[in-house]
Amino acid sequence: MNVGIVGTGYVGLVTGACFSEMGMNVTCIDIDRHKIEMLKSGEIPIYEPGLKEMVLKNSRKGRLHFETDLACVLDSLSVVFVAVGTPPGEDGSADLSHVLSVASLFGKNIKKYTLLVVKSTVPVGTSQKVRQRVEEELERRGEKIEFDVASNPEFLKEGAAIKDFMSPDRVVVGVSSDKARHIMEKIYKPFQMSNYRIIFMDIMSAEMTKYASNSMLATRISFMNEIARLCEITGADVQKVRAGMAADTRIGNKFLYPGCGYGGSCFPKDVKALIRTGKENGFDMKIIRAVEEVNEDQKKVVFRKLQQALGSLKGKTVAIWGLSFKPETDDMREAPSVVVANLLLDAGANVKVYDPIAMDECKKRYLGDRVEYAKDIYDCVQDADAVALITEWKEFRVPSWERVRKAMKGNVVVDGRDIYTPAEVQSAGFDYHSIGR
Known about the structure:
The protein is of the alpha/beta class. The protein has three domains: 2-201, Rossmann fold (3-Layer(aba) Sandwich), CATH 3.40.50; 211-297, Orthogonal Bundle (N-(1-d-carboxylethyl)-l-norvaline Dehydrogenase, domain 2); 299-433, Rossmann fold, CATH 3.40.50. Helix content is 45%, strand content 14%. The chain has helices spanning 10-21, 33-40, 51-60, 70-73, 97-109, 126-141, 161-166, 178-188, 203-234, 238-246, 267-280, 286-298, 301-310, 336-346, 359-366, 377-381, 401-407, 422-427; strands spanning 2-6, 25-29, 64-67, 79-82, 114-118, 147-151, 171-174, 198-201, 317-321, 350-354, 372-373, 386-389, 412-415, 431-433. It has a six-stranded parallel sheet with strand order 3-2-1-4-5-6, with helices on both faces. It has a six-stranded parallel sheet with strand order 11-10-9-12-13-14. The N and C termini lie far apart (55 Å).
């Protein structure tokens, strides 16, 4: 089967690589010529474990191709996946201009039945707009060519995207015809051989499922962060509370870990978009609004703990361990580290940072030269008054506290992810602060 993927960002590139891994002939299309040239020469513009190896392997085997013009390859494709960006506006609405641009190009150039699949995260009702745009272009041409539109939202976790795609817990597909359903079954069957869980539904329900799923996970995170704040006030231990809750099979343990807030490309954007969708339909999403408010405030918790422990921050040096919004990615979109660093800088502190992967991203897009970039975790804490853990990378889990204590000028440790044992850190001579304990 010949498959086209429009957009070579995180979702598009992972999708194209994984489809080609299963033997499909895949063409990834992007209007960014520089990015396409990079991919053709074997350079991968994003960091995701296992992705580079998969892209290089399937490119060499002739199953994965890169082009800049959808029109030139459309005749050879049976299905086209739309995986372009839908960045949020200030009001939380998704920018659909790129999605609709692909729909226009598709309508202007199809010559035979082709399935257009919206994989980009889009508000409920977007696929109807996509269908309408294609129909308008066909009408301008005076052509009546059969086509279908489907919705196939992605549920990839950054840092584990290859595994998620190759062994999905479920694949959600919204279709409006048997023909589209048959094509999507054929595409995804190789990924479901051991546990066939492809869930078909109407298109609008598929679009809603994406937002509802991510907003539910975000809700669990914000809920636990509120419980953690209350635990600190009352004297309870949130980790013991979490264990007691997780033992209830109706609740489970996923996304119940307290911390310094969620970030990334999905949760913040999808929560905002769901709030916006409710507003556009005259419905106030009260719980989801609270989820967002709690998270925005939670990102400031580490700063407040540093302020409480150090008093005036002016002239103080604070080390930050971890910059990406989560481990195993260089993605810093909506990352708590950016909020903490900016608050520290505004308060007159000197900030040193270290991250195994995201240093270049941080310097290029977020904090520039306003912070000092360290070569490793121990260089980062040299002469620091305090250290704050923001991202729980594996190499931060078991530091030599003796070595850290000797390197630091002060003794304050703020554990923004509750990964350390309080007694162990305190016995090494530190003034230890965590979330909800």
